[in-house]
TrEMBL record:
Matches recorded under PROSITE patterns: MIR
Classification via InterPro entries: MIR_dom_sf, MIR_motif
UniProt-recorded name of the protein: MIR domain-containing protein
Origin superkingdom: Eukaryota
UniProt-listed SMART domains: MIR
Listed SUPFAM superfamilies: MIR domain
Pfam families documented for this protein: MIR (PF02815)
Occurrences of domain MIR (ranges): 15-70, 79-132
Keywords: Repeat, Signal
Amino acid sequence: MVLQAYGERRRLKKGDAVPYNAQIRLGHIVSRRNLRSHPDYISPISNQQEVICHDENTSDLNDNWLVQRHSYTNHYDNSGYWLADDAITLRHIQTGATLHSHSIMLDNDDNQEVTCYGPGHEENDKWKAEHNDINDFIRSS
């Protein structure tokens, strides 16, 4: 689910459009934990910046992400609003690194590692929103 960024006064309401270049937080619908990263924690598996889900009650600036239209160059078309089928890059506000996926698995289980890494131009830095119910896609907190 999409939440207003930590420290933002403007509250997102269900149905609000999210403009490109907006700061947001992302929450896991089932656990109600926020996606976050921290500059001081490095994954022991990939040596990239660690990404975790963290309790919403202890949210801080490390939970904030910048929504950008995905680009293979340093030029972003950030006009308009984020739509569910748009390819986006999520840039960690505190560190400038982008949310990154790769084929590295965690501790021999079925969980794939996600990190913050690089400038965001790779195929593994491209994300799309998925939702089953628009009422869960944007939540006011």
